[in-house]
Each structure stands twice: as structure tokens, then as C-alpha cells.
Amino acid sequence: QVNFVAMQQFRVGFLNSTIQCPMHAFYADHFVLPLPEGHRFPMGKYSRLRDRLRVQLPQVQMQAAPAATDGELALAHTPHYIEAVSQGTLPAAMQREIGFPWSLAMVERSRRSVGATVAAARTALSQGIAGNLAGGTHHAARDKGGGFCVFNDAAVTARLMQAERFRQTKKVMPVAVIDLDVHQGNGTAEIFARDPSVFTLSLHGEKNFPFRKVASDLDVDLPDGTGDEVYMQALHTALEAMGDRFEPELIIYLAGADPHEGDRLGRLSLSDDGMMARDRAVMDWAYQRRIPLVLCMAGGYGRDIETTVQVQVNTWSVAVSYWERWQNRPL
Fold it and tell me: Tens of pLDDT along 151-176?
């Protein structure tokens, strides 16, 4: 069923924009965490992705992300946690759970990773689709981080977009978080556990991190070694089920690169073609219903970092094709 409210809102935004405007992507890779030698997080993938997109997809205009404020972060996180992260006073055990040593760069990058998704969401609501070259920090819960995630950008963005829409219309905007990172979005699920205005959907490896899952509105647990055919069947079934239960007016899509067969932490076996088919399925589901979509990169830990970057470039190429459909659609 076509979401006519979202379609009309898009048309109004479109009329106020220029047809020749570029697709917008927001980045924060100029804040590089000082990680110890041998750390397994591939920090370099973000700047490499930006460099590749600049050359291969000139339709994408990259902009430095703004930093999320304490007030914005407090829409999804407790004030005590925000202060502890900002001041570097988190207990050692909580810092280890995040997986990064504390530094001012860690705080600034985490704020701007949230700010990038917020900025992309505001753009998507007028242009149909926009994205964050990082983001997807779905293991961060209300009062703690985890799994390389400090603040939860999808949760903050969903709440902030709802607040901004409510100020305009006095109505709550339903938001869906479609999480296709290979790891279950436990932090996002915890934040929205009792919030019927946000639908959380997660397809993930059944036996992968986090080992204690938090129930999403719809979880799809996949066995190790799942390949293209089984994955796509599961995804189409999940999207259909979500559509039967929920009518979003904004989608935040976590397009993790880690279900790819070349990922060292993934344990699934999607090919390059399978990953692109996944992206097309989500973006087409949103486009057919005229639902604006925010793209976030989420995880990716290829044995070769260039493998991860290529998967992400492919995701952006699919996104550009749908962005062009949004811009060229007759009014």
C-alpha cells in the first residue's frame, strides 16, 4: 500500500528543492581514533570509501557532519552516560565493552557519526534518500555502549525526526529501522522496546555477536553459511511481514557490509551480487511506497579492507540509482 502522506510530504519538499541537486552524504572520517597497534577495527575504511565515491560516483556530494549536541543525544541516552563518555569517566569495564580506548577524538567522532545520520535524515525527508558514510552504531543502548558503538545514531535520529515532525504537525511520525548488519541490533532494540512508533527489524547471524540478543519487533536469525538465495527469501518475507504490521514514514537502513562472504567477523556467505540484491530489495521497498530512506554503513570487517570498501561502494551505487528515481519522478 502506497504511503500517501509520505508521498505528499516528499512532493512538497521536492518543489522547494532544485532538480539538479546532488545526492548528499555526510562523513566524519577526519576524526581518526588513536587505536593501538593490531586493533581489529578497520578505521581506515571510512576515508577510503569517501575517496572511492568521489572518483566513481560524482553524483554524491560529500559534506562534513555536524556534531550531535547533548540534548540530541539525550533523546536516546541517559544524561549520566553522555557525561561519562564526554568527560572520559566511564568505568574501565564499560570502556572495554565499547572496544575503543577513550580519547577526545573518540568523543568527537561519535558525536559526528550521530550528526551525520541526523543530517542525512533531514535531507532524505526532502530528497527521498541520503546517507552517512559511517553510522549504524546499533550496539549502543540507553546507558552504555558496546561492540565499537558509543552513541546510537539510528535511535537519536529517529527520535529527533519525530520531535521535529511533531512540532510541525502535532502527529507522531512512524519510523522503521531496517538493520541488515550481520550482528543483531541489540542496543536499538533495547531503546525502542516499549515504543510502538518505531519498528525495529534485524536480520543477523544466529550464532554471532551479541551472544545475548535483545528482542526487536522482528528478528530473523540466520545460520552460519547462509548464502544469497536463502538470505533473499528471508529478507523478502521480513519486509512483507513488517509492511503488514507497520506503515513507516521514514526508514533508517543499516547496510552492513559484514554479511559478505569475505568478512572475517560475519559468518554468512553473501556474494557481491547477493549484497547488491539485498540493497535493491530494501531501497525498492521504500521507493515503491514513497518512504524516504536514510542509508548508514554499519559494520564491515573484510579480511582485505578493500573488499569491505568495494561492498560499500556497491551499496552507494544502488543508492544513487534510487536517488535518481526520486529526482526524476514526474509530479
Answer: 999 999 999 999 999 999 999 999 99
What ranges make up the beta strands (E) of 93-179? Answer: 129-132, 175-179
SS3 213: coil
For 3, 212, 278, 295, the CA distances from 140, given in Å and listed in that order, are 31, 14, 25, 18
Distance CA 302, CA 76 (A): 30
What is the mean predicted confidence (pLDDT) over 131-138? 97
Helix (H), strand (E), coil (C) string for 53-66 = HHHHCCCEEEEECC
Give, in order, the Cα–Cα distances in Å from 202 to each of 43, 234, 253, 254, 263.
Answer: 24, 11, 10, 9, 19
Strands laid side by side in the 250-254 sheet: 60-64, 23-27, 129-132, 293-296, 250-254, 175-179, 198-205, 218-222
> Can you tell me the distance from the alpha carbon of 130 to that of 13, in angstroms, rounded to the nearest whole number?
14
pTM for the model:
0.92
Answer yes or no: are the C-beta atoms of 22 and 60 closer than 8 Å.
yes
Cell readout for 41 is: 577495527
SS3 108: helix
Question: Helices 104-127 and 153-169 sit at what angle, rounded to 10 degrees?
Answer: 40
- The span from the CA of 146 to the CA of 132, in Å, is 20
Exposure b/e, 149-183, CB count within 10 A at least 16 = b: bbbbbbbbbbbbbbeebeeeeeeebbbbbbbbbbb
For Cα atoms 283, 1, 164, give the angle at the middle one, nearest 5 degrees. 65
Q: What amino acid occupies position 226? A: T
Beta-carbon contacts of 168 under 8 Å, excluding residues fewer than 6 positions away, are none
Angle at 113 between CA 316 and CA 104, to 5 degrees: 140
